[in-house]
Amino acid sequence: MQRKKYTIFAIRMMRTLINILLVTCLLTGLLASCSGAPRYDNRLALADSLLNDNENSDKALQMLKDINPSDMVNEANKAYYRLLITQAYYKCYIKATSDSNINRALDYYQHHSREKDKLIRAYIYHGAVMEELNKPDTAMLSYKQAEIEALEKKDIFNVGYARLRMGVLYNNFYAYDGRDIEKFEQALQCFKLINDTNYQIVTQNKLGANYRQTDTIKAKKALSESISLSEAEKDTSYLITGLGEMAQLYFMRHSNKTAYQLLQRIKTLDPNGLHGSHSNIMYYRFANIYSALGMPDSAKYFLQLADTQEQSPKDRIQHLEALSNIAIAKGDSSTYLRLYYECNKLTRSTMNDHGILNIMYAENQIDQAHAQEEEAKQRRMYATAAAVILSLLALALIFYRRSHRYDKLVLELKDQSQSQMNDLTGLQGNISELKINDERLKGFIASNMGMMREMIEACYHEPNNRIAESMKRIVKFQDSNRDNWVKLYDYIDLEHNNIMTLTRQRYPQLNDRDLLLLALTCMGFSYIQTAIIMGYSNATSVSVIKQRLAKKMGLDCTLNEYINQYANSQNES
User: Fold this and answer.
1) Contact 46, 549 (CB under 8 A)
2) Please, what is the Cα angle at 361 between 357 and 367, to 5 degrees?
3) Which of 135, 196, 319, 328 has the most other CB atoms within 10 Å of its CB?
4) How deeply is 111 buried, as exposed, middle or buried, from its count of CB atoms within 10 A (0-12, 13-18, 19+)?
5) Nearest CA to 473 among 373, 384, 375, 382?
């Protein structure tokens, strides 16, 4: 007797678990269906397309300045505007003075996961703004997060661009462990994979400049590839940059004649005298090489063209190096020694700056957090898999016990009377058929509908109920989609003569929520229970929505009458 009680208790607990899983599938599927992409202002979309072409960045910026963000109709448009205006300022080389716009845009996209592409851009330009505001460790956090999000989305371009930005950041702070080169190499792989020629050129130039210190062969190869691509694309700006980097390589290897030939080619490409379109670094190249050739006046001329306002430590070091080379060309040893000492002092202070350690720590911090998050996802996945396996085992046990009850019933009927043998044989056939076809599932589901409805109301009206709390925890970690509804419709078809399948065929205009409402009505759910599952604020709205569904189907009767009439017509046929 005691064993029988334990068996009954175990079966009830298994039924409860199955019902919880069914309701969980319904609720999570409903939540997953409620997302939708926002509608954006056409002016923002146009500005975005203009920003894709660097030559039109000024037009995009002016267009955005003419827009009043307070006139935007929703938060999505406001966030989009703030992202684009930050991007426009950056592409127009206007240094950021505040992070207000990009912070608010980033905060919005962090809470709206369906805007993944804009979230990645927000992280990248947040990093760019943080760099301009002299917060390199915060910039590294943003670039690293952009890389992680882009990897998840399989956005190869932004993976490469985020790595390029991280490499530049490490390079600016004189990374001593080769992290800058590693990032550039990883970025180049991404750009080659998607055949992005422009960023291949940019990255090859960065690699060539960094290889110069340790590996001349690699440096020549990278810069030669950059120059070849620039010539193929007929891009004069990138070609001048590549030739300038190659000239610096030959200057460092004391091949001044070859370096001079490259400079002459640059002057041929830009006869206006390098009017500032190629940054200060080109002027430093000219100054150094002309000094090495014994032409200090020409070197001084190009050095004076460089902009000395708001120089970075790296620019300041190169400026001092050019001045010291001019002093050598003039034979002014005392000035050379003073400048050499000043340059070394600045270089040491820059390399000892704690900024590089902060950047490294920031990247490591993100890597560790991401690894912990992935480990937590795996644990949740294993827990979910274990719950599913236990549920299947419980279901198998229920069917097994039921099959034994059927066998026992047959034996008892055989013992009662030999005269009922023919009827008993027919009953055995029916029972065997019931055990091997879908009718046993139909009976099982029908017998548990009452318990399912009780579980739903218990979860929302009895907050101290332990089973209800367990269900809420399960709901929190379940991942589901509309395929769960399709499974539920299969069960209802067994009970109601394929009503779900044929209704979908006859009324293709019905959406997923319409079909779910029809399914719950077939299952006999009350207005309150239906409202709970479908997320309506009160039960009265269910009645109105059922009337709308009947009208949408073109019925001359209520939804319940349609279900009853359909069942009767199927039985008659």
Assistant:
1) no
2) 150
3) 319
4) exposed
5) 384
The string of DSSP letters for 95-143 reads --S--HHHHHHHHHHHT-TT-HHHHHHHHHHHHHHHHHTT-HHHHHHHH
Helices (H), 133-215: 136-153, 156-172, 179-193, 197-211
Three-state secondary-structure class, residue 206: helix
**Contact (CB, 8 A) for 518 and 500:** yes
Surface-to-core class of residue 339, CB atoms within 10 Å of its CB (0-12 exposed, 13-18 middle, 19+ buried): buried
Tell me the pLDDT tens digit for each residue of 350-391: 665 566 677 777 777 777 777 777 777 777 777 777 777 777
Residue 478 has pLDDT above 50, yes or no: no
- Measured in degrees and rounded to the nearest 5, phi and psi for residue 539 equal -75, -25
The whole-angstrom separation of Cα 435 and Cα 444 is 12
Residues 6+ apart with CB under 8 A from 490: 500
Distance CA 288, CA 262 (A): 13
How many whole angstroms separate alpha carbon 185 and alpha carbon 203?
8
**Maximum Cα–Cα distance for the chain, whole Å?**
130
Report the mean per-residue pLDDT for the chain: 77
Listed residue (370, 450, 306) closest to 150, CA to CA: 370
Q: Range with the lowest mean pLDDT among 213-217, 310-314, 436-440, 503-507? A: 436-440
CB atoms within 10 A of CB 388: 11
Q: How many Å apart are CA 272 and CA 281, to the nearest integer?
A: 17
Q: How distant is the alpha carbon of residue 8 from its chain centre?
A: 48
Under DSSP, the state recorded for 350 is H
Q: Is 310 helix (H, G, I), strand (E, B) or coil?
A: coil
Here the contacts of 131-138 (C-beta below 8 Å, separation 24 or greater) are 131/169, 132/95, 132/96, 133/96, 133/99, 136/169, 136/172, 136/173, 136/355, 136/358, 136/359, 137/355, 137/358, 137/359, 137/361, 137/362, 138/362
pLDDT digits 0-9 by tens, 220-267: 999 999 999 999 988 888 888 888 888 888 888 888 888 888 888 887
d(CA 240, CA 169): 23
Q: Where does the pLDDT of residue 475 fall: very low under 50, low under 70, confident under 90, or very high at 90 and above? A: very low
Quote the CA–CA distance of 448 and 79 in Å, as a whole number. 48
Query: Rounded to whole angstroms, how far apart are CA atoms 391 and 15?
Result: 9
Please give the single-letter amino acid code of residue 178.
G
Taking the C-alpha atoms of residue 533 and residue 14, their distance in angstroms, rounded to an integer, is 22
- DSSP collapsed to 3 states, 351-402: HCCCHHHHHHHHHHHHHHHHHHHHHHHHHHHHHHHHHHHHHHHHHHHHHHHH
**Paired tokens of 85:** 């205006």
pLDDT at 468 over 50: no
Instruction: Identify the burial level of 431 via C-beta atoms within 10 angstroms of its C-beta, where 0-12 means exposed, 13-18 middle and 19 or more buried.
Output: middle
- Which DSSP helix (H) or strand (E) runs through 18? helix 2-32
CA angle 333–338–343, rounded 5-degree value: 120
* Interatomic CA distance for residues 475 and 25, integer angstroms: 8
